[in-house]
Design the sequence.
């Protein structure tokens, strides 16, 4: 294997996050460090409550400043995320970093057609006119294997199945040609067969578009399916990191072994 000499696209360095206000702070992330290299998929895994989503929200600059305190550093392409203004952060989220969550319904506008949401995003972020935005939206629908794209364009989110909504969200996330995708349990709410389809879609897109992906899941089966490297978290601590192959072959921590024993 060729050794990667490039520097990471994302570096999480001794991240500590506490929630609270004034003098009462409760730390929930206790010094977590990991890197994501360009074009690589890293799985962030751990049971519910281990701090995966808080880590993602910290990277995305989505924690409410008054209620959350971030220490340590998060560096995306040389930029220190905790130092960015809300405006710069918004531009980053609509540009080089995209995200998808467990329930796309909360991220989609219920009163706008799926097609128009993506087209609008293309108009804002890539300056496309109405015609070009529509054409590009249909191309993106095709890209995420939505058949019958013309009809789906005029569907509202609530008319679609969970799996279809997640495809729409993925199409939306691709609209800004991100360098990195952060996916927080994007398949957890879906039926097993649909899960598998969405996972293979994410994998295919990652390979074709060369994006880096931080894939958050509580499911080691999913980890095996998608990731090059794995970061295991438990109760706000980093348990271990390694290549996914090594973690499956020879997990160092008892906790990782217990997660693995749950994989059928
Ligand atoms: P995971 O995504 O791994 O299930 P989370 O990152 O959501 O875990 O949560 C990690 C810990 O942080 C949990 O103990 C949770 O209760 C706590 N937490 C998350 N969000 C907040 C918040 N806004 N205020 C206070 N505590 C929070
Ligand atoms: Mg979570």
Sequence:
């Amino acid at each position: 294997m060729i050794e990667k000499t490039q520097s990471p696209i994302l570096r999480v360095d001794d991240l500590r996050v506490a929630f609270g206000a004034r003098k009462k702070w409760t730390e929930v992330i206790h010094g977590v460090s990991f890197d994501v290299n360009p074009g690589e998929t890293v799985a962030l895994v751990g049971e519910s409550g281990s701090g995966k989503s808080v880590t993602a929200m910290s990277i995305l600059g989505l924690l409410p400043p008054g209620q959350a305190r971030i220490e340590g550093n998060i560096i995306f392409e040389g930029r220190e995320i905790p130092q960015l203004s809300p405006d710069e952060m918004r531009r980053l989220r609509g540009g080089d970093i995209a995200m998808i969550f467990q329930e796309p319904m909360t991220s989609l506008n219920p009163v706008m057609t799926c097609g128009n949401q993506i087209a609008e995003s293309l108009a804002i972020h890539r300056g496309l006119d109405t015609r070009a935005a529509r054409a590009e939206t249909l191309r993106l629908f095709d890209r995420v294997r939505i058949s019958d794209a013309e009809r789906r364009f005029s569907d509202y989110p609530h008319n679609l199945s969970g799996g279809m909504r997640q495809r729409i969200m993925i199409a939306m996330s691709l609209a800004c040609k991100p360098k990195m995708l952060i996916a927080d349990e994007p398949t957890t709410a879906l039926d097993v067969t649909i899960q598998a389809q969405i996972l293979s879609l994410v994998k295919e897109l990652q390979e074709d578009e060369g994006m880096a992906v931080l894939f958050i899941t509580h499911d080691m089966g999913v980890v095996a399916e998608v990731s090059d490297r794995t970061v295991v978290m438990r109760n706000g601590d980093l348990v271990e990191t390694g290549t996914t192959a090594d973690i499956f072959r020879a997990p160092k921590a008892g906790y990782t072994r217990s997660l693995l024993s749950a994989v059928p």
In short: The pocket of adenosine-5'-diphosphate (ligand 1) is lined by residues 19, 28, 46, 48-54 (CB under 6 Å). Strands lie at 10-21, 24-36, 41-45, 68-76, 79-80, 97-100, 180-184, 212-217, 229-234, 237-243. The mean pLDDT is 92.
